[in-house]
Amino acid sequence: MTRTGIVAIVVGGLIVALGLAFFVSPLASSSPDGLEKVATNEGFIETAEDHDLADSPLAGYGVEGVGDESLGTGLSGIIGVAITGGIALVLFGIVHARRPRSEDDHDARSPATAG
User: Residue 70 contacts by C-beta under 8 Å, 6 or more apart in sequence?
Assistant: First the structure.
């Protein structure tokens, strides 16, 4: 696969992920997740405590300061996808840079063989 094809797939996938994060995440169920449901059914939900990041700007699948809950959820999804995609691209770049080059790659990139 060509480098252009790989870039097109990555950019296309990122656009789809951002669209899904913004438009679909506000439609997620507001019902308790599996662990909360079990805790409620078994009667120990009262012992639950907020985690250390409960006051962070993106806590609770929202964005602090955004009054519209659906907009805040969509924005938090976009921020999450952007952070995850950024980390993935940095890691991919590090792995790609450390990959040993073959002689064929070197010859294909050499200006002496280009013209």
Answer: 26
Report long-range pairs for 85-93 (Cβ below 8 Å, ≥24 apart). 85/14, 85/17, 89/10
| Per-residue pLDDT tens digits for 27-83 | 988 787 888 889 999 999 999 888 898 888 888 888 988 989 899 999 999 999 999
Q: What is the pTM of this model?
A: 0.68
Name the helix (H) or strand (E) containing 70: helix 69-98
| Closest among 83, 76, 51 to 62, alpha carbons compared | 76
Please enumerate in sequence order all residues whose Cβ is within 8 A of that of 65, keeping only pairs 6 or more positions apart, or say none. 57
